[in-house]
Write a structure and sequence with these properties.
The chain is α+β, with helices and mostly antiparallel strands and about 700 residues long. It is built from 24 helices and 20 strands. β7 and β8 form a beta hairpin.
C-alpha cells in the first residue's frame, strides 16, 4: 500500500514537471498553442483568450502604470494588482498622521477613493504582425541606414493604425528584429486607490522572504479605473464615473491542487533566452557581482537609519524595496546560471551551430563576429553598470538630473517637480553616507580613462573621497529645498554649484567615452543576433529536433501556461505548492518589522473565525506554479482551466530567477497569491465586503 502510494505521488509530481516547458506566447498567435494547452487541461478556445471582434480575456488585462500588470474584476472598473506595484502611489498619500503603509487603506464608498496623478491603465485594443511594412526598403542597406528606414516605416505604421482615434500605438520587434508587431492601446488616466492591506500583510516577510518559498505575503491592492460619462478615457474629474470594462474575470474560490492547469496573462518585461554565451558570461561574472556589491552598500545604510525614525522609514520604504528587489534577484540568477552551467551549454551549442554554419554563407561568420563584438563592448558595459549603480544612484545627482532641463532652457518648470517629487522623501544625511561609499567604489574599480579629471582633482584637493563628499553636501544648493529656493530668489549661478559640476563631469565622460561605443557595439550585436536567431531556427529545423521557439519578452501581452506544482530545491527536500495561514502565524514575530502582523489577524487566528474562507481549518495564502514569468508579470492574473481568476502572480522563487536566460522545468516556479486569501483579508481585515459583493464569485 505504501509503495503504491509513493509511486502515485511520484507520478503526479513528475507529471507536473512535464507540464512546464517554458515559453511566453503571443496571444494573437495562440491558435498555434491551443492544442497543447487543451492537452494539458485548458477548456476554452483561442478566441476566448484573444479576439478583436468580440470581448475576450485580453480586454480584462492592463498595463498598470509603467511596469506591472493589472486585471479587471468587476463590471464597475475594479482592478487588482500587487501591493508592491501600487506601493509608491500609496506612499504618496501616506504621512506620519495618516500612515496608510502601516495601517492600510479601505475606501468604504467611491467618494473616498484616492486619485493618483500620472498613473495610467493601458488596455490593448489589438496587436498585428507588421513585419513587411516595417522592413520595406531595408534590403541592401548597412545597419545604420536600415535603422533609419525602419524608423520612418514605423512612424507610418503607427499613424495608419491610430489615425482618426485617440489610441496610442507602439511597434516592437520580436526574435531580435526578424519580426515586428504593432500594439494599439487605449489609455485611461483616472486611476484611484480603493483598498490596500497594511504593509505587515502586503509586504509580510519583507526582503527576508522576497523571492523565497514558502511565502505568506498578501501582495495585493485594489484600484478603480474611472472614465468620462461616455466610458472613454478622461483626465481626473469628480464627474468621472467607474469604467465599464469589455471583459472582467470571474473569481474562483473552488480551490486548487497539485497538477491543476494554470495560465498567466500579462506583460512580462524582458527575457534573453537566445543570449550569446559571451553575454551570459558578462552577466554572471562581471555585471551581477558589481551591481550586487553597490546595492549592498546602499541597503546597509538605509536599513541602519530607517529603524530609528518612522519618517525615514516611510520616506525610504519604496526606495529600499526597489533597490533590494533586483539586488536579491541578481544573486539568485547567478546561482541558477552557475548551477545549470548555462555558459558551457551555450558554448557547446554555438560550436555545433558553427560547424553547420560553415556551409551556409549567411551564417558562416556569425559566431566569430559575435565573439568579437562582445569583447569590444565588455569594458564599456561594465562602466555603464557602475555609472548607473554608483554615480546616478546618488540621490543628490538625481535631483540635478531633474533640474538639468530647467538649466538647459532657462525655464523654471523643473523646480516645482524637484520640490514636490524629490524633497518629500529625501534625507541628505542618508544620501551623504551612501555617496561616500559609492564614489569611492567607482574610483577604486574603474580605470582612470572613465573617471573625469575634474573629479580626480577635486578629490585630491579635498584629501579624500569622504572629505570631498562632505564639502559637496555642505555647499550645494540642491541638498535642501530651502537652499534651492533661496538660490533661485538670490539669482545663484547654478553652473557653479558643486553638485552640478559633479553631475556634468560624469555625464560628459559617459557621453564622450562610453555611450557612443555602447551604441555602436550594441547595434552590431543586435544585427548579428538577428541573424543568429534566424539561423538557429533553420538549424533546428534541419536537425529535426522539434524545438519550439518563443519570442523573448518585451513588455507586451503574453501567455504562459503550466500547472500548480511543488519542486525540489535541493537533495531530500520537496516544497509543497500551497502555503496557509498556519505557516504565516508560525513566522509571526512582533519584534521583527518584516514579520509583525496586525493584532487583528492574530485574534482571528486564535478563534479560527475564517467564515466562508475556511479551508480545512485554515486559509490558503500562496501557491507555486510552473508558468514562465518575468518582471512585469507582477500583478498578472493567474487563471484556471476555465479562465477563472485563482490568484495574482507576484514573484518567482529564488532558484527560478535565471529563467530570464534559461528556463529549468524542474526548478522554475512562479509564486501566486491565492485569491481566497485576498478575499479573506478584504473581508476580515479590511471590512470591505462591498468590494467582494462587486465581484462575480464562483464558489
Amino acid at each position: 500500500m505504501k509503495k503504491a502510494l509513493f509511486i502515485a505521488i511520484c507520478t503526479l509530481l513528475y507529471s507536473s514537471v512535464l507540464f512546464s516547458q517554458g515559453g511566453m506566447w503571443v496571444p494573437s498567435s495562440i491558435k498555434e498553442r491551443i492544442k497543447d494547452m487543451k492537452a494539458k487541461g485548458f477548456k476554452l478556445s483561442a478566441e476566448d483568450i484573444y479576439d478583436i471582434e468580440k470581448a475576450s480575456y485580453k480586454d480584462a488585462v492592463v498595463i498598470f502604470g509603467s511596469g506591472c500588470t493589472g486585471e479587471m474584476v468587476s463590471p464597475d472598473g475594479l482592478m487588482l494588482t500587487n501591493h508592491h506595484c501600487g506601493f509608491s502611489e500609496l506612499q504618496k498619500h501616506s504621512s506620519v498622521e495618516h500612515d496608510y503603509l502601516k495601517d492600510g487603506f479601505w475606501a468604504m464608498k467611491k467618494e473616498d477613493e484616492l486619485p493618483n496623478p500620472g498613473l495610467t491603465a493601458k488596455f490593448l485594443i489589438r496587436m498585428e504582425d507588421v513585419t513587411d511594412m516595417v522592413l520595406t526598403g531595408t534590403e541592401g542597406h548597412n545597419v545604420e541606414e536600415e535603422k533609419a528606414i525602419k524608423r520612418k516605416n514605423i512612424d507610418k505604421v503607427v499613424q495608419k493604425f491610430t489615425e482618426g482615434t485617440k489610441y496610442i500605438a507602439e511597434v516592437k520587434p520580436i526574435y531580435y528584429g526578424n519580426q515586428y508587431y504593432i500594439y494599439v492601446y487605449e489609455v485611461y488616466e483616472d486611476i484611484r486607490i480603493v483598498g490596500a492591506p497594511p504593509s505587515s500583510i502586503g509586504k509580510f516577510g519583507g526582503e527576508t522572504d522576497n523571492w523565497m518559498w514558502p511565502r505568506h505575503t498578501g501582495d495585493f491592492m485594489y484600484f478603480r479605473v474611472y472614465a468620462g460619462k461616455d466610458n472613454k478615457p478622461a483626465p481626473y474629474s469628480k464627474d468621472n464615473v467607474p469604467y465599464k470594462p469589455k471583459k472582467y474575470f470571474n473569481i474562483s474560490t473552488k480551490g486548487i491542487k497539485e497538477s491543476d492547469f494554470t495560465m498567466i496573462y500579462g506583460y512580462p518585461a524582458r527575457t534573453q533566452q537566445y543570449l550569446f554565451s559571451s553575454g551570459v558570461d558578462d552577466i554572471l561574472n562581471y555585471s551581477n557581482p558589481a551591481k550586487i556589491k553597490l546595492r549592498t552598500m546602499r541597503l546597509d545604510e538605509i536599513r541602519q537609519v530607517r529603524k530609528s525614525d518612522p519618517a525615514i522609514r516611510i520616506a525610504y520604504a519604496y526606495k529600499e524595496a526597489n533597490i533590494a528587489n533586483a539586488w536579491k534577484k541578481w544573486q539568485g540568477e547567478s546561482l541558477g546560471l552557475s548551477r545549470l552551467k548555462t555558459i558551457d551549454k551555450k558554448i557547446a551549442y554555438e560550436e555545433a551551430f558553427d560547424k553547420w554554419a560553415n556551409t551556409k554563407p549567411e551564417y558562416k561568420n556569425v559566431i566569430a563576429d559575435l565573439k568579437t563584438q562582445y569583447s569590444l563592448i565588455h569594458d564599456y558595459a561594465l562602466v555603464q553598470d557602475y555609472y548607473k549603480e554608483a554615480i546616478m544612484a546618488i540621490e543628490l545627482l538625481q535631483a540635478v538630473d531633474i533640474a538639468n532641463k530647467w538649466l538647459s532652457n532657462s525655464s523654471s518648470a523643473a523646480i516645482p517637480k524637484i520640490q514636490s517629487d524629490f524633497y518629500h522623501d529625501y534625507y541628505p544625511e542618508v544620501d551623504r553616507k551612501i555617496a561616500k561609499k559609492l564614489l569611492a567604489e567607482y574610483m577604486n574599480k574603474i580605470p582612470p580613462a572613465f573617471i573625469p579629471q575634474d573629479v580626480i582633482t577635486e578629490v585630491q584637493l579635498a584629501g579624500s573621497v569622504d572629505k570631498y563628499i562632505d564639502n559637496l553636501f555642505a555647499t550645494s544648493l540642491f541638498v535642501t529645498e530651502d537652499r534651492l529656493k533661496a538660490g533661485i530668489t538670490n539669482g545663484a549661478i547654478f553652473a557653479e554649484d558643486p553638485a552640478i559640476k559633479l553631475y556634468l563631469a560624469f555625464r560628459k565622460m559617459y557621453e564622450t567615452n562610453v555611450r557612443k561605443y555602447l551604441q555602436e557595439y550594441n547595434t552590431n550585436i543586435e544585427a548579428l543576433q538577428k541573424t543568429f536567431v534566424r539561423g538557429q531556427q533553420e538549424y533546428e529545423k534541419e536537425q529535426k529536433t522539434g524545438k519550439t521557439f518563443f519570442p523573448d519578452a518585451n513588455h507586451t501581452l503574453r501567455i504562459a501556461y503550466g500547472a500548480i506544482s511543488g519542486y525540489s530545491p535541493e537533495d531530500a527536500v520537496w516544497y509543497m505548492p500551497i502555503s496557509t495561514l498556519d505557516g504565516l502565524i508560525a513566522k509571526d514575530n512582533p519584534l521583527d518589522y518584516d514579520f509583525d502582523i496586525p493584532q487583528k489577524l492574530r485574534d482571528i487566528y486564535s478563534t479560527s473565525n475564517y467564515g466562508r474562507w475556511d479551508v480545512n481549518g485554515t486559509v490558503p495564502v500562496c501557491f507555486l506554479a510552473s508558468n514562465h514569468t518575468s518582471g512585469g508579470n507582477s500583478g498578472s492574473p493567474v487563471l484556471n482551466s476555465k479562465g477563472e481568476l485563482i490568484g495574482i502572480n507576484f514573484d518567482r522563487t529564488w532558484t527560478s530567477t535565471m529563467s530570464d536566460i534559461e528556463f529549468d522545468p524542474e526548478m522554475c516556479r512562479n509564486i501566486g497569491l491565492d485569491i481566497r486569501y485576498v478575499l479573506f483579508i478584504t473581508d476580515k481585515i479590511g471590512g470591505a465586503k462591498h468590494l467582494i459583493d462587486e465581484m462575480e464569485i464562483i464558489e
